[in-house]
Amino acid sequence: MKKLILVLFSFSICCFSQTTHTISGLVSDANGNGLPFSNVLLLHSSDSTLVKGIVSLNNGSYTLDNVNQGEYLIMASMVGFQSVYSKAFNLNTTYKVEPLVLIEGEALDEVEVTVKKQLYEQKIDRMVIHVASSIIASGSSVLEVLERSPGVVIDRQNNVISLVGKSGVVVLINGKESYMPATSIVQMLQGMSSDNIETIELITTPPANFNSEGNAGFINIVLKAQTDVGLNGSYALSFGVGNGTITTDNISFNYRKKRINFFGNYSYLRDSQGQLFEFERRFINKDDASVLVETNSNRDPIQRNHNVRFGLDYQLSEKTIIGLLLSANDNKWTMDAVNKSMETINGNPNSFVELLNSERNQQKHMGANINLKHTFKKDGYISVDLDYLKYHIENPTDYTNSFFDSNNDFLREEITKSDKTNPIKIAVGKADYSNQINSKIKLDVGLKTAFSNFDNDVVVGTFSGQDFIEDNELTNISDLNEQILAAYSSVDYAINDNINMKLGMRYEYTDSELNSDKKGKVVDRKFGNFFPTAFVSYKFNDSLNFNLSYAKRITRPTFNDMAPFVIFFDLGTFFSGNPAIQPAISNAVKFDLNYRSIFISAQYSVEEGSISKFQSSFDEKNERLVFAATNLDNTKIFSLTLGLPITLTHWWKMQNNIIFSNTNMSNTVEGSLSHFEKNTIDINSTQSFTMAKNLTSEISVNYISPSFNSWIGTSTLKSIYGINIGIQKKFGDKWGTLGFKINDLMDSIQWDVVNAIPEQNLKTKSSLDFMSRTFVLTYSRSFGNKKLKSARERARGAEEEKNRVN
Q1: Record's SUPFAM superfamilies (predicted)?
Q2: What digits encode the pLDDT tens for the residues 598-650?
């Protein structure tokens, strides 16, 4: 650790002590006359990121002082003229740029500006992924884009998202919390097209105005928004073939006129990719015999997802805006599977079971939001939000079990049925106040309350002739009522031009009550906590800055974590809830160093009572393996992230992200304390090629070495690697864009999880293959008005939604 700090300090001093130079030049028209008040921007030649900008003098000349050594280029622009770029140059002394000649362009209302942004951008408290900058992202679902993002791991089987080794991630849409159960979130992201997405933000140290929930951080999905007058939008159609077929189609639009802005999007997904699961468990039974159970599951699922969102903003006055947002999602997942299980005792075959199951998991959601925002001065506003969300989840499953003896001779047939119904209702009210008190101090305060009601009706049983006999241990009716009250305050203080500080405090009070028809009140929990945050940033110069932050967070158990539910994998293996699960509290410190487009980040977190979503345990009495949410003693994670963009030539650029993490878990099983430690490397490299005008290609490589993840507890996830390639041709606005890609080129992505619990003489191994090599063709096109927006200034739709929370 000391060596790391020394390296970072030396790097900072080296960059800080750089000699600065001066750049000068002239902007003129075609006749050689200097153009006064033209815009002059200094850009890094590697990725076109902005360094600084000025306006030319009366004679068209300009001078940029105090510029560090490096490779740059100059862009000059002016209303009514076509923008022009200089040649790239290496600055190591005073430099004079050749005159930049602006040619008069077409009429102003035909001018269109397009900027190619870097795929990954590191900011003070988050990594921003510019989705539109990736060819491979086009035609993908948002879930697939996240799976290829640095530090993000998606467990599709258990619907868990983790970030840098920690589960408990909270998903936001345009800065607004979705309040969905974890299962619904993963299914929604699978049905959401990336072609509707502007950026994805990975926020690991959120400020105080974010909910204290989510110690793994936040993922904010920012949807595209057009602010031009009139009607405009885009659509994309895609079709893929692999081990089955897949299509993701979407359309989005925006209509803006005078005081009204009406927007919306709709996406449709159908995925029929086959899946293959293998499961193995070894244990010592009550007769001290060694038992091995091997299960093979050949699954034939079909997922169909409709996702729709409409919004209306109305400008009541120059300073006041009111908005209505409606959303709905219908995700239907059906599956027919053939599961074959063999049990051997002391190496000798004992029995065979063939299990045919038919499952439907359908989740319907409707939500409404009303927002009122009043801006009382340039940097001050009051915002009020009211949300109501309703979910209905159904999960009926039929099992036909055929039993065979050790010689594989048929013995009997048994029909089992399980059903789960979950209606969920959530109401949220919040108010935010933000005011720039003076040039140095900004104040933010807010209040929030949330009410949740969750019913969980689980029925499990077998048929004896025409009679259905319930399993009393697994059948349960329960309901959860929860109320959360919160208040926060944060202060931004600009100590000087180079040093900024942000201090925040959030208080949350939670009242939870879970009742069961068999056990009565099983949870009656009331607790309050303070959650402080602190950020300090220091800017050495235009190219170098660092940030230091601290945050305390909480992870509350999800509804499914607490409420009893049952999902069978085979007759001796199932997933279940745990009413006794407790919240987890974490403290995290993070350091970021940004030098131009290079960033280094170091983070250390300690979490007490970590929630393992699917910690395995063995019921020796019934010889059942149970996966349930469990509190581990603690989890300590140190991570180091390096973001390294490299420009090899003008036609070949790459972005490399490397994350090293050390995870240390402690867990007590049957009175015995165990420690688990793992070092993990996560590498993401994206290569972009400009092959010809409007013809580009991309290769993305992802690798994760063996790792721990809090959602699988003390189990080890073996290494994962995958390669995706794509090519894209733009035919202009009139004809759109055509893309072709191959996902999982090597057909190598699958989940291999192993676990050992010596205290219970138990060893398990799972292999889950959710996807295969898939060939996808995508066509996308914009439509409507592409003229520059009107002079009336107004926040964009995405920014407006952010302000409703921030």
Answers
A1: Carboxypeptidase regulatory domain-like (SSF49464), Porins (SSF56935)
A2: 888 899 999 998 888 777 777 666 667 777 778 888 999 999 988 888 878 87
Q: In this structure, are residues 390 and 184 in contact, taking their beta carbons and an 8 Å threshold?
A: no
Q: Give the domain 120-803 fold.
A: Maltoporin; Chain A (2.40.170)
Q: Are 676 and 717 in contact (CB under 8 A)?
A: no
* DSSP H or E run through 11: helix 2-16
CATH architecture of 20-110: Sandwich (2.60)
Mention every residue, 6+ apart, whose C-beta is less than 8 A from residue 520.
none
CA distance linking residue 448 with residue 513, whole number of Å: 20
Instruction: Name the percent of the chain lying above pLDDT 70.
Output: 81
Residue-range domain boundaries for the chain: 20-110, 120-803
Q: pTM value?
A: 0.72
Could you tell me the CA-to-CA distances from 624 to 292, 469, 568 in Å, in that order?
Answer: 13, 20, 11
| pLDDT attached to residue 82 | 78
Residues 6+ apart with CB under 8 A from 683: 656, 657, 658, 659, 701, 702, 703, 704
Read off the pLDDT of each residue in 683-687 and give the average, rounded to a whole number: 87
Name residue 796's amino acid: R
Beta strand 89-91 pairing with 95-96: unpaired
CA–CA gap between residue 19 and residue 21 (Å, rounded): 7
Domains 20-110 and 120-803 share a fold: no
Distance (Å, rounded) from C-alpha 536 to C-alpha 738?
Answer: 45
User: Rounded to an integer, what distance in angstroms lies between the CA atom of residue 204 and that of residue 90?
Assistant: 36
Strand partners, 300: 336
